[in-house]
Write a structure and sequence with these properties.
The structure is a single chain. The protein is an alpha/beta fold. The protein is 46% helix and 18% strand. It is built from 34 helices and 34 strands. The two termini are 30 Å apart.
Length: 882
């Protein structure tokens, strides 16, 4: 019979730390700690297999599971010497989720399970603390009602707040046993009103209902959103951990805390965390009270602190990674409740990886595999311009680095709705897991409560968003949608800025600048460059973008879109004059005016690239994109170029196409209007020749003909380009090497690639068009139904963001094979948006391409993904050999 339950505790465990697939991260960590002799409250883990079965079989449990579950509970009772619901010596347990990958706060937890009237009596007797017993009961009813019965927790919190106000106290800890007894009665009455049944006193009913509620939480809205944002599969399932309760709220010799073995914001090798005296675990992360820095524990409980440092240091060395741990102190005795790989910001991840290589804990290859390529995006977050005049109105905790400016919003729903179209800062008393959608859409997050390990801080760090937490001086009114401090009020839609690196809250919109990259980043990327074989270029049309590309490690330009140069205000009228011209002579006259502009543009790009190749695509979009769209615009243009407005309007209507993206564009334009290609080739070659004559600047121009589907199309444009290039080079009296190739973006072009390669010197796969033509999806219109495809699991990824490897990818592999069969040294690259997507970059490596080209700010992402592709290939080869 399949084993569904794994025990841990008292120095033994059925499982181990490598069993995350089966036991989840929490269960695997508890098993590993138990075996290592770490003080862990005993318990057992229900495997992820049960969760998967639960969802695959109409929310039913496997045959024989109930019997195994009951036997496990009896074993735990025997091990602890206590019994559920016992009047003399009651056992209380926690029921917690635990997926393979950390999902902080996204699923449900229930504490103090087993509380009823008998257990209340026994707990009061055993601890000599009646107040604690009633508080434990109050907390349990609240959590059970919310998690299992889905009663909004606010309803219970209103009762708690009213009780504190009636007693004239601020903190829960100031309520006495009588107050808490009254609250328990009020909570039970509310439960009865909401559910039409009494609160369950049977511990077994409590336990089975809580277990199943944790399974159900795997598919709650916030968990689904979190998995989607972090690309975690929905079919992994969660484990359920049932563990003996230990209490941090029995008095001042008790406490609870969370921490990290290194700073998860900066990566510094220093003990990092927070704790509360006389508190339960959820008090720290919920931000109900502002916690103390963990170093203060050394003063308050020196022996416990020393033990905690020794255990966590041992765990870090054992796992060879930063640990995120939870602990409880009960009557001066330390218990470890969890250890797992800690989430961290990208700057911290890079620093920790580099430091651990220096400490000989991990290899360079392991360091490179520890960073998700997309994390590098966080390193490119803007920072506040040091020259800016700032009005700092408050300061909180620097919970997640970076700076963000936006309009204040006060609900997660508003942030989610508005954050896609304008920058917003989400301001809350404290965030909770239900806010995940708003946090994702916001530029940054500000909370009045909570510490460095609060929900807001942990989730923001994982998302790479700036966060200022625990800004206690601000008074937030979420109902009135405003916050105030010292006479200053910030209302909804007011501009504000936060700096997550310092904790500063600033009034107004503040200018931001690009950050400086750390020494550790440069070391890390050198390791990646030493391993990767795939080169990385950038898509850049202007010198500023080319400069950024070089700064981020680009090895050339893989796509310069010349049409972007024509949209500039001073050039567009000449482009429009050329399009409206009725004959070739008039077109050439207008193109002559554009030639100087184009030549200067290309000179700027060549200078920035310092001898790296620059691939320039000849005009691609349909001409209608450049002409006026209204009669008023026609009148304006008429005054500029001296052509009647009616003539311009007539030409605009003539150029209208029902499906322009499949119309008169790309090489089709160059074939019907060869003077356009002639001008562009002359501008490219002239720019290179002039630089060579002026100062000997080395250039490697690559002229790329777009939208080729027939070898004859390419041949037509190549013959023209070669003629113009040779004439231009001869006129300058210099020697110049150049290449002429094509974009493979029409499916037919991929199919006949072998024939095109007879005369083409390179291919660059334009995957934006290749995807839309292969799938028959308009990339401009498909977003509305692709979202439905993703929700219904028809698509795993948006094909316009991550390459469709089994469809479009097969066309690419065919074209690579046929092209190289014709010409062994054929240079191959990719220049669509997929060039900066890690999964697509790894595909390009496997497919045998020479380079990828990405937007400048995604160049570092592509460099790391290319290195990881090599490492993954080696790992797969070694596994196959074994």
């Amino acid at each position: 019979m399949k084993k569904y339950i794994y025990f841990f505790g008292l120095g033994k465990a059925d499982g181990n730390g490598k069993m995350k697939d089966l036991l989840g991260g929490k269960g695997a960590g508890l098993a590993e700690m138990s075996s290592a002799g770490v003080p862990v409250p005993p318990g057992f883990t229900v495997t992820t297999d049960v969760c998967r079965y639960y969802y695959a079989n109409g929310k039913k449990l496997p045959a024989g599971f109930d019997k195994e579950f009951k036997a496990a509970m009896e074993k735990l009772e025997k091990m602890s010497g206590k019994r559920l619901g016992d009047r003399k010596n009651p056992l209380l347990v926690s029921v917690r989720s635990g997926a393979k990958f950390s999902m902080p706060g996204m699923m449900d937890t229930i504490l103090n399970l087993g509380m009823n009237e008998d257990a209340l009596h026994g707990l009061a007797e055993a601890t000599g603390n009646e107040r604690f017993a009633w508080d434990s009961y109050r907390r349990f009813i609240h959590m059970f009602a919310n998690v299992v019965m889905e009663i909004p927790k606010d309803k219970f919190e209103h009762l708690l707040t009213a009780k504190k106000q009636a007693r004239g106290v601020k903190a829960d800890t100031e309520l006495n046993a009588k107050d808490l007894k009254e609250l328990v009665a009020e909570f039970k009455a509310l439960y009865l009103k909401e559910t039409k049944e009494d609160f369950p006193s049977d511990p077994w009913k409590q336990l089975t209902a809580s277990r199943d509620a944790v399974f159900k939480s795997w598919m709650n809205e916030r968990a689904i959103t979190y998995r989607k944002l972090n690309r975690i599969a929905d079919d992994l399932g969660t484990a359920v951990n049932v563990q003996t309760m230990v209490f941090g709220n029995l008095g001042n010799d008790c406490g609870t805390g969370v921490g990290f073995t290194r700073d998860p914001s900066t990566g510094a090798k220093e003990f990092y965390g927070e704790y509360l005296v006389n508190a339960q675990g959820e008090d720290v992360v919920a931000g109900i009270r502002t916690p103390k820095h963990i170093t203060e524990l050394e003063r308050e409980m020196p022996k416990v602190y020393a033990q905690l440092r020794a255990i966590t240091s041992k765990l870090e060395k054992h796992y060879r990674d930063i640990q995120d741990f939870e602990f409880t102190i009960e009557r001066s005795v330390l218990y470890m409740l969890q250890t797992r790989i800690g989430k961290r910001t990208a700057p911290a991840a890079i620093k920790i990886a580099v430091d651990m290589v220096k400490e000989k804990l991990i290899t360079k290859e392991e360091a490179l595999m520890r960073i998700e390529p997309e994390q590098i995006n966080q390193l490119l977050h803007p920072v506040i311009d040091p020259k800016a005049d700032l009005k700092v109105i408050a300061k909180g905790l620097p919970a997640s680095p970076g700076a963000a400016t936006g309009k204040a919003v006060f609900t997660a729903d508003d942030a989610a709705e508005r954050g896609t179209s304008e920058p917003v800062i989400l301001v809350r008393m404290e965030t909770n897991p239900d806010d995940i959608h708003g946090m994702n859409a916001a530029q940054g997050i500000l909370t009045a409560r909570g510490g460095m390990t609060s929900h807001a801080a942990v989730v923001a760090r994982g998302m790479g968003k700036p966060c200022v937490a625990g800004c206690e001086d601000i008074r937030v009114s979420e109902e009135e949608r405003r916050f105030s401090i010292n006479g200053t009020t910030v209302k909804e839609n007011d501009w504000m800025t936060i700096e997550g690196s310092t904790g500063r809250v600033i009034l107004g919109k503040v200018p931001l600048i690009e950050p400086q990259l750390s020494d550790e980043f440069n070391v890390f990327m050198k390791w990646a460059d030493a391993i990767r074989t795939l080169k990385v270029r950038a898509n850049a049309d202007i010198p500023r973008d080319a400069r950024a590309a070089i700064r981020f490690g680009a090895e050339g330009i893989g796509l310069c879109r010349t049409e972007h140069m024509f949209f500039a205000e001073e050039r567009l009228p000449y482009m429009q004059e050329m399009i409206i011209a009725e004959d070739e002579t008039s077109r050439r006259k207008a193109l002559g005016k554009l030639l100087t502009f184009q030549k200067d543009d290309f000179k700027g790009l060549f200078r920035e690239m310092k001898g790296f190749p620059v691939t320039i695509r000849t005009l691609d979009p349909p001409l209608h994109e450049f002409v006026p769209k209204t009669r008023e615009d026609c009148e304006t243009l008429s005054k500029k170029i001296g052509v009647p407005a009616e003539t311009i309007w007539r030409k605009s209507e003539e150029l209208h196409e029902f499906n322009p993206m499949l119309g008169h564009r790309g090489c089709r334009l160059g074939i019907t209007f060869p003077e356009i290609t002639e001008m562009q080739v002359k501008a490219i070659i002239s720019a290179a020749c002039e630089l060579k004559k002026e100062d000997g600047t080395k250039t490697i121009p690559e002229i790329m003909i777009p939208l080729v589907g027939f070898p004859e199309e390419f041949q037509n444009q190549k013959d023209l380009a070669v003629r113009v290039a040779e004439e231009t080079i001869k006129s300058y009296g210099v020697k110049l090497d150049y290449k002429i190739g094509t974009m493979i973006e029409v499916p037919r072009g991929a199919i006949v690639a072998g024939k095109i390669a007879e005369t083409a010197e390179f291919f660059s796969f334009g995957t934006n068009d290749l995807t839309q033509m292969t799938l028959g999806f308009s990339r401009d219109d498909a977003a509305r139904f692709i979202k439905v495809y993703l929700d219904k699991k028809i698509f795993k990824d948006d094909p316009f963001q991550t390459l469709d490897q089994s469809g479009v990818g097969e066309l690419i592999k065919w074209a690579v094979a046929q092209g190289r069969k014709t010409k062994k040294d054929l240079k191959l690259g990719i220049c669509g948006e997929h060039g900066g997507d890690p999964a697509s970059v790894k595909f390009c490596h496997r497919a045998g391409l020479d380079y990828v080209s990405a937007s400048p700010f995604r160049v570092p992402i592509a460099r790391l993904a290319a290195a990881q592709a090599v490492i993954e290939g080696k790992q797969k080869s070694e596994y196959t050999q074994k």
